[in-house]
C-alpha cells in the first residue's frame, strides 16, 4: 500500500499522537470494514432464505467510505445512494441493527430510523424534524438527505444543499438562523456510482456546481461496471476523471478540483479526502474524488450474479484487490497488527453482526406477533366453523407477515357475512382500529401535516381601497413578491431569466436591484438542477421559489420532482420536509412545444405536492402568500395569457391569503354545474353569456387547486341544485378532467345527485399546432362549451331545447 504520511488526516491532527492511539484508530476502522462486509454477506443470505424481499449492498467500498467519513463534520451533509452503508455506519447515522431492520422492512421508525419500513435497504436518512414538525439543530448533527433509488438522482439536490452554505456565509441577514449553519462552513458530500455519471443529471448538476462554486465533494465509486455494462461502454475513455479534465480549474477561473485514488489504498484515501474537504470547506471549490479499483463481491443485487458477466480474470483480480483484504495485508506488513489479533477482531465483528441481525429480526417478529396473537384470539372466540380455515392458517404460520394476517382476517369477515354475534363485533372493532394503525404504518405523511401545513391556514380576503388602481396582472404578482421578500429574509428566487430582467413576464421586475443577487438570481438552462437547488435550500431552512420558465419544461425535471421532492415526507415518515414552491406558467399557449397543459403527467407523478392552478394573478398572489407561510411543497401554474390582463391591486397584496384546496363558485346558475380552472375558465365565462341567450344558466366552479381538490365540497353543493355536471379543461382526454370527475362522483358522492350523464370537454389527443386557428381546433373553444352544454340540456328536455345538429 501507499507510504503516504497521514499527518493531515483529521483523526491524526495532534502532532504528537502516540503510536498506540494511532494503532487504535486504524484497528477500529478495519473492524468497522469487517462488520460492514459481514452485514452485506448476511443480508444477502436473509434475502435468499426469504426473510427479506430484496437487497442491495455496499460491499467492496468499505475502506474508501471509512476514509471519507473521517472528514465529515457536524453540520455537513450527505447526498448519497444505496452503496453507502459503511459510510453511514462510520458517520453514526445508521447501525448494523438499523441496517437489518430496514432490510426486514420493519415499520417502526425506531427500528428503521431512515424510513419506517418504507424504503428498501441501504437507503439512509437523518431526522431533521421533531414530532411537531419543527426543525432540529442541523449544526449539531451529521445530516443526510433521504436517499432515492433513481440512478444519479442524488446529484440534483446537492446544488441547494451547497448553495445554502454560500448564502449563509455571504448574507449576514441570515445569521439568526443558527440551527442551519455555522457561517457557511458546511460541506456537502455526494456519492455516485461510476456508471451513473452517464446520466444527464450528473452533467447538469456538475456544470452548475462549477459555475456557482458549490462546496461539495463528489465521490465516484468506480468498480468497473454498471450492473453488467463495463466502463468501456459507459464512459468515453472508460475513465470519468479523464473526461472531466476540462472542468479542472486553472488560475483564477471557476471549475473543480479532480482527485484520483485507488479504493484499497487506505492512507492515500485519507489524505485525498482531507485535501478535497479543505478545498470545499475553506474555498468553496467543488471537488471530484474518482475512487478506482473498487470491487463489488456480490454483484449488483440479490436478483442476479456477477459471475454471469465478469470474466474469470476479472473475478480473480477482484479477489486479490478486495479492499478489506488489502487493508488487512497492510496492517500485517506495517506491523500495526498481528495475525492472531486480527483473527480475534474478525471473530468479534462476526459475532456482533450476528447478534444485531438476530435482534433486528426478533424485534420485527415481535411487531408481527402482536397482530397475529390478537387475530388468533379474536377468531378463536367466534367459535364458528366458517372461520376454521383462516384461523388454522394463521395458527400454522411459521414466518408470519402482516399481509397473511390481514388477508385471513378479511376472509373471515367475508365468510361471516350476515351473521351477528358479540364476538364478530369485537373482531370488526379490532379490524377497524388496526386499519388506522396500518394506515400509519404504510400510508401516512404524504404531506408533513404539521401546524404549518397550508391546509391549516385560513383564508384572508383581499382588500381594496376606494380609489383602487387597475394594473396589469403581472404588477399584482410583482408587488406580492416584493412584500414577501421584505417580510422574510429566508425567501430566495431563481430560474432562467428571473434575475436581471425579472423573468420573461416581469413578475420579479426590479426586485434583484432591491434585494440583491444573493436572493434573486438567474440560472442556466438546467431544469433538474433548478428543482434540486430548491430541494436542498428548503432542507436547510430557506424558502426557495424555483422557477421553471414554462409548464412544458417541467417535464425535464420530473424525475427530481417525482422521485425526490414529492415523496420526501412520505418516504421519511414525516422526519424531513422541503417546502419548495415551484413557479411556472402555462395554459392556452399555442404550439406543439408550448401547449402548456400536461396536467395528467403532473397529477400522476406529483402526489405529495400541492398543485395550484389560479385563474388570474390576484389568486396566484394569494396562494403564494399562503404557501410562503407554510411548510409543504407546491407547484403554482400561472395563466400565461393573463399577465397583461387588467386586475385590481389589493391594498394588502402581500398579506391576503387564498386557502389551498378550496374551490370557489364564481358564477351562480341553475342548470349545469361547470367545473374548470386556469385559463379555460375565461372560455367558460364567455360561453355562459352566450348560453344565457339560449335560456341556459351555468353555475361555474373554479377548482383553484387540483391537489387537494375542493376540500369544502362546493361541487357537491352545486350539484344538489343543478343535477348536471360538465368538466372543462385543456388537458388530454381522460386526464385532469377524468381526475376531477372521480373526485366529484366518487369522493363527494356526486353521482347520486345527477339526472344525466356527466360530461367532459378537453383538448384533442394531439398537441396543439401553431397559430390561433390551431388553438381553436385543438382546445376547448367558446363554441365547444356552448354546444356541449346545450346538448346536455337537449338530452334532458328536447322539447325546450331542440337539437342543434
TrEMBL record:
**What are the alphabetically sorted keywords of the record?**
Oxidoreductase, Thiamine pyrophosphate
Organism domain of life: Bacteria
InterPro entries recorded: DH_E1, THDP-binding, Transketo_C/PFOR_II, Transketolase-like_Pyr-bd, Transketolase_C
- Keyword Oxidoreductase among UniProt keywords: yes
Query: Which GO MF terms are attached to this record?
Result: oxidoreductase activity, acting on the aldehyde or oxo group of donors, disulfide as acceptor
Looking at the record, the residues that make up the Transketolase-like pyrimidine-binding domain are 471-645
Cofactors named for this entry: thiamine diphosphate
Q: Where is the signal peptide?
A: none
Function of the protein: E1 component of the 2-oxoglutarate dehydrogenase (OGDH) complex which catalyzes the decarboxylation of 2-oxoglutarate, the first step in the conversion of 2-oxoglutarate to succinyl-CoA and CO(2).
User: What PANTHER family does the database record attribute to this sequence?
Assistant: PYRUVATE DEHYDROGENASE E1 COMPONENT BETA SUBUNIT, PYRUVATE DEHYDROGENASE E1 COMPONENT SUBUNIT BETA
The entry's protein name is: Transketolase
What taxonomic lineage is listed for the species of origin? Bacteria, Pseudomonadati, Bacteroidota, Sphingobacteriia, Sphingobacteriales
Amino acid at each position: 500500500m501507499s507510504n503516504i504520511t497521514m499527518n493531515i488526516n483529521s483523526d491524526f491532527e495532534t502532532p504528537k499522537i502516540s503510536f498506540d492511539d494511532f494503532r487504535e484508530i486504524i484497528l477500529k476502522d478495519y473492524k468497522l470494514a469487517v462488520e460492514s462486509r459481514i452485514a452485506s454477506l448476511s443480508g444477502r443470505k436473509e434475502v435468499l432464505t426469504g426473510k427479506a424481499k430484496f437487497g442491495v449492498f455496499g460491499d467492496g467500498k468499505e475502506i474508501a467510505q471509512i476514509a471519507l467519513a473521517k472528514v465529515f463534520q457536524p453540520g455537513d451533509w450527505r447526498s448519497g445512494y444505496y452503496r453507502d452503508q459503511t459510510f453511514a455506519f462510520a458517520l453514526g447515522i445508521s447501525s448494523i441493527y438499523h441496517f437489518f431492520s430496514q432490510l426486514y422492512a420493519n415499520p417502526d421508525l425506531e427500528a428503521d430510523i431512515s424510513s419506517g419500513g418504507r424504503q428498501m435497504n441501504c437507503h439512509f436518512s437523518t431526522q431533521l424534524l421533531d414530532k411537531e414538525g419543527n426543525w432540529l439543530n442541523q449544526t449539531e448533527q451529521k445530516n443526510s438527505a433521504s436517499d432515492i433509488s433513481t440512478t444519479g438522482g442524488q446529484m440534483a439536490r446537492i446544488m441547494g444543499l451547497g448553495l445554502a452554505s454560500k448564502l449563509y456565509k455571504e448574507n449576514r441577514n441570515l445569521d439568526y438562523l443558527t440551527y442551519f449553519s455555522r457561517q457557511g462552513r458546511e460541506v456537502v458530500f455526494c456519492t455516485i456510482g461510476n456508471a451513473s455519471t452517464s446520466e444527464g443529471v450528473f452533467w447538469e448538476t456538475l456544470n452548475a456546481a462549477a459555475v456557482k462554486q458549490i462546496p461539495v465533494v463528489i465521490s465516484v465509486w468506480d468498480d468497473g461496471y454498471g450492473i453488467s455494462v463495463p466502463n468501456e461502454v459507459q464512459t468515453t475513455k472508460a475513465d470519468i476523471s479523464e473526461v472531466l479534465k476540462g472542468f479542472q480549474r486553472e488560475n483564477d477561473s471557476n471549475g473543480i478540483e479532480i482527485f484520483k485514488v485507488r479504493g484499497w489504498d487506505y492512507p492515500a484515501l485519507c489524505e485525498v479526502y482531507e485535501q478535497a474537504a479543505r478545498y470545499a470547506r475553506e474555498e468553496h471549490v467543488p471537488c471530484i474524488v474518482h475512487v478506482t479499483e473498487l470491487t463489488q463481491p456480490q454483484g449488483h443485487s440479490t436478483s442476479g450474479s456477477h459471475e454471469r458477466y465478469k470474466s474469470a480474470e476479472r473475478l480473480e483480480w477482484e479477489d486479490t484487490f478486495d479492499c478489506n483484504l488489502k487493508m488487512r495485508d497492510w496492517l500485517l506488513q506495517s506491523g500495526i497488527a498481528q495475525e492472531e489479533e486480527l483473527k480475534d477482531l474478525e471473530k468479534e465483528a462476526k459475532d456482533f453482526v450476528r447478534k444485531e441481525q438476530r435482534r433486528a429480526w426478533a424485534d420485527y417478529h415481535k411487531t408481527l406477533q402482536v397482530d397475529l396473537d390478537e387475530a388468533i384470539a379474536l377468531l378463536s372466540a367466534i367459535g364458528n366453523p366458517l372461520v376454521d380455515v383462516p384461523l388454522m392458517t394463521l395458527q400454522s404460520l411459521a414466518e408470519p407477515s402482516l399481509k397473511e394476517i390481514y388477508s385471513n382476517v378479511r376472509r373471515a369477515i367475508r365468510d361471516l357475512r350476515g351473521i351477528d354475534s358479540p364476538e364478530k363485533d369485537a373482531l370488526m372493532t379490532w379490524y377497524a382500529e388496526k386499519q388506522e394503525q396500518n394506515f400509519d404504518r404504510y400510508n401516512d405523511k404524504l404531506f408533513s401535516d404539521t401546524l404549518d401545513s397550508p391546509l391549516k391556514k385560513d383564508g384572508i380576503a383581499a382588500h381594496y381601497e376606494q380609489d383602487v388602481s387597475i394594473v396589469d396582472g403581472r404588477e399584482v404578482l410583482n408587488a406580492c413578491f416584493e412584500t414577501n421578500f421584505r417580510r422574510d429574509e429566508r425567501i430566495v428566487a431563481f430560474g432562467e431569466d428571473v434575475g436581471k430582467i425579472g423573468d420573461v413576464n416581469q413578475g420579479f421586475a426590479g426586485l434583484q436591484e432591491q434585494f440583491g443577487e444573493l436572493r434573486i438570481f438567474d440560472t442556466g438552462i438546467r431544469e433538474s438542477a433548478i428543482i434540486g437547488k430548491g430541494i436542498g435550500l428548503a432542507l436547510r431552512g430557506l424558502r426557495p421559489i424555483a422557477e421553471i420558465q414554462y409548464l412544458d419544461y417541467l417535464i425535464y425535471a420530473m424525475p427530481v420532482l417525482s422521485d425526490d421532492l414529492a415523496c420526501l415526507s412520505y418516504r421519511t415518515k414525516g422526519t424531513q420536509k422541503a417546502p419548495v414552491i415551484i413557479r411556472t406558467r402555462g395554459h392556452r399557449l399555442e404550439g406543439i412545444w408550448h401547449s402548456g397543459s400536461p396536467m395528467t403527467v403532473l397529477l400522476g407523478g406529483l402526489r405529495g405536492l400541492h398543485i395550484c392552478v389560479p385563474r388570474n394573478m390576484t389568486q396566484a398572489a394569494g396562494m403564494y402568500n399562503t404557501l410562503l407561510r407554510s411548510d409543504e411543497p407546491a407547484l403554482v401554474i400561472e395563466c400565461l395569457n393573463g399577465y397583461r390582463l387588467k386586475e385590481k391591486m389589493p391594498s394588502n397584496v402581500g398579506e391576503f391569503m387564498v386557502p389551498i384546496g378550496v374551490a370557489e363558485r364564481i358564477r351562480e346558475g341553475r342548470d349545469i354545474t361547470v367545473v374548470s380552472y386556469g385559463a379555460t375558465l375565461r372560455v367558460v365565462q364567455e360561453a355562459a353569456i352566450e348560453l344565457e341567450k339560449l335560456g341556459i344558466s351555468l353555475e361555474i366552479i373554479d377548482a383553484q387547486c387540483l391537489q387537494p381538490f375542493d376540500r369544502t365540497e362546493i361541487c357537491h353543493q352545486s350539484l344538489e341544485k343543478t343535477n348536471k355536471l360538465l368538466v372543462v379543461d385543456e388537458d388530454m382526454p381522460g386526464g385532469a378532467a377524468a381526475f376531477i370527475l372521480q373526485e366529484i362522483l366518487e369522493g363527494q358522492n356526486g353521482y347520486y345527485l345527477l339526472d344525466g350523464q356527466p360530461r367532459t370537454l378537453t383538448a384533442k389527443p394531439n398537441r396543439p399546432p401553431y397559430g390561433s386557428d390551431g388553438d381553436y381546433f385543438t382546445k376547448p373553444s367558446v363554441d365547444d362549451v356552448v354546444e356541449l352544454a346545450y346538448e346536455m340540456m337537449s338530452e334532458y328536455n328536447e322539447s325546450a331545447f331542440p337539437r342543434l345538429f
